[in-house]
Amino acid sequence: xxxxRTNNTVDTWLRVGRxxxxxxxxxxxxxxxxxxxxxxxxxxxxxxxxxxxxxxxVATALSLTGVAYRYGGDSPEEGFDCSGFVRYxxxxxxxxxxxxxxxxxxxxxxxxxxxRLPGDLLFFHTAAGRHVGIYMxxxxxxHAPSVRTGAVRVSDVRxxxxxxxxxxxxxxxxxxxxxxYRARLRRVEGPTPSTDR
Length: 197
Description:
By secondary structure, the protein is α+β, with helices and mostly antiparallel strands. Helices cover 28% and strands 25% of the residues. It folds into two domains: 2-44, no CATH class; 57-189, Alpha-Beta Complex (endopeptidase fold (from Nostoc punctiforme)), CATH 3.90.1720. It has six helices and ten strands. Strands 9-8-7-6-10 form a five-stranded antiparallel beta sheet. 29% of the residues are buried.
């Protein structure tokens, strides 16, 4: 990838085969390239979940604001910890994610900050360990922060505390039914978790 500065803006482009891809389309190609990994041939990608999983991911996450925090919790009835919350939201849309934050980070492809989309997962390093939330756009994310803060809430990723601790962004845009994804998930977590919760 290369960038050229023109009139105080940065024109980012990629060369895909013999074609240059400019601007926003470059961001899409970057996302697809991340999914392709080392395979190198974008044309051979299997169908994948749309960015952000489905249009309802953020709405589902926001509908759970106010649900109590509970370590190890993974339902509105018992409360949520951060990974239980994220997993629950995606499961409501038929997307199975690993149960804990470290496994999610290991199983999902990373994306650059500049091409983040609503529904992406934001990972943080905090004093208590790892933390994950769902990006909702406009630099906001929804998450189950801690016992101290008490409940699922919306926070600003650019606020000093969270911005300093941002460790990476992962996107649940993977061919979840592919044998490669299932094998990767088994390596990280063991048997594929059920979706019957």
